């Protein structure tokens, strides 16, 4: 940790030369500790490829929404309606693909356009509802807490009303590919994706360095860049390797061959590889990070969170900004609805219940400050991962359900406390 | 000579209270006009109408003789009117470059904000305004009052302001930094800018300004050339709300 008020000295330790985000390191450290402790307590069942695969696909839905919640909280608002909005979108998409499109529009069950029309319509609905809530907050200046508290009740029950409380399913087979285990890339394409990601990461580091040199800015020493690049590459490829190590059970493979009218060769094996839902999350993370760091919209979101008056006096339309932030949140809720309902292969009435709390907790554990102006996308995703590992780890260990929630609640408060102390020590940010 | 900027017969009310009542002021190129008065006299409100933060109920604004339509800060910027606010109006969580370019970010070919270019431009202008300024990567909350003030001033200077509004520019500053701002005002005057300056410090105003306008309870008491009045005259205008000749 460097003291920001002290004059910068030329001499730096090797560790400082890496210019790592100590906060991020702390979170990764906490995550690793959780993993190792649970792994010991479950006699090595926690860190198996199978459990890591499951953990990943269970995290996706909350993590996608948490990235949007970062923007909402950074602009000093809150969204309590995300779980309910997810349910409304999920119900709408379930009804659309199972009832409206086949019956009313006569497309017929299994028509290849059904999943795509459904997803597009669902995303549109989520965006519109989000924008509407944003309009209530931004233009009619009703506090976001109230608008979304009302929204929590309204959208939860709009979902109920749409389906009359029934479970709708099974969902379209293509649609369910976005849920996790039903749609994976397989070993080869997972490796291709991993290598492409490594190449892209290295290119991004290289071009950032070149841009800095072009302006005569100070850059990290070459060895530091190489070390960082190696760590990132090892992380990406290691993750792909673990997912690829989870093999499809041979019974299931046999059935897949039977469906195609073939007989499975002796000793044949295949991996699930990278789930499409995780690809979606990675896509969302990249886009949201780009928006946050490299677009005017992102700059205005953070400026408004830091000082709403300054933003307004600088000519930023903070009302419209609020609408946009909530619209993004709504779109991400709809995307999460696709993932969540596809994972369960049906829409159930209680889908997304209490998700608002998980999402807010993920964003806050990930370092988003409720006072506004501060937060990162990767932090929120890591926060979601930490929450999910705690929850499923305790379930595996056999902790009683009430105790599980007591622990999660305590961790949330403790995480914010540690963050507050950390910020005071590093110069009040 | 046409004034660089003229506000004619401006009035605005908030909930039945006339915060500004039929006030007219103007500034010529290369001139500094001071606005004096008690808290709540209407100085800041008047100036916020010019900077687009408020919209006047009645009255007109002319920039270089042309009627100007200012209803938002963005409009004001289009007329090259830049404002340095009393509260500094910086986003504390962002760095100097992001604040300098806030609302007018430089972008690259793909439409993404170009942080490197903005940082390079910030370095250039800061080298001119405040050579000791080094903390380019820190959020401005980590800066001293003077450094924050230089960011605010740099914002106005960088975008070629013609009319500069400074609301209590030295209120948060030490002696050395106040002198820095005073030097800068002289420099900008030479470049032909028109400056509206708001301050409580009567003596400082008499040093920095060419003319001073005194306001009380939303009304303009009078505008005097600084050579023609003493500090006591101004004080009596502020307190009594009367011109010196009437006060006698």
From TrEMBL, chain A:
Transmembrane segments: 20-40, 52-74, 80-101, 113-132, 138-155, 185-206, 226-246, 267-292, 325-345, 357-381, 401-422
The protein, known as: Xylose transport system permease protein XylH
Keyword terms: Cell inner membrane, Cell membrane, Membrane, Sugar transport, Transmembrane, Transmembrane helix, Transport
Function according to Swiss-Prot or TrEMBL: Part of the binding-protein-dependent transport system for D-xylose. Probably responsible for the translocation of the substrate across the membrane.
One Pfam family here: BPD_transp_2
Organism: Roseobacter cerasinus
Gene Ontology, cellular component aspect: plasma membrane
Locations listed in the record: Cell membrane
Topology with respect to the bilayer: Multi-pass membrane protein
Domain of life: Bacteria
InterPro entries: ABC_transp_permease
Gene: xylH
Keyword Magnesium part of the UniProt annotation: no
A molecular-function term among this protein's GO annotations: transmembrane transporter activity
From TrEMBL, chain B:
Intracellular or extracellular location(s): Cell membrane
Keyword Transport: yes
Key words, A-Z: ATP-binding, Cell membrane, Membrane, Nucleotide-binding, Repeat, Sugar transport, Translocase, Transport
GO function terms (MF aspect): ATP binding; ATP hydrolysis activity
Residue ranges of domain ABC transporter in the record: 5-242
Protein name (record): Sugar ABC transporter ATP-binding protein
GO CC terms of this entry: plasma membrane
Keyword Nucleotide-binding: yes
Signal sequence coordinates: none
Superkingdom of the organism of origin: Bacteria
Membrane topology: Peripheral membrane protein
InterPro entries with a match to the protein in the record: AAA+_ATPase, ABC_carbohydrate_import_ATPase, ABC_transporter-like_ATP-bd, P-loop_NTPase
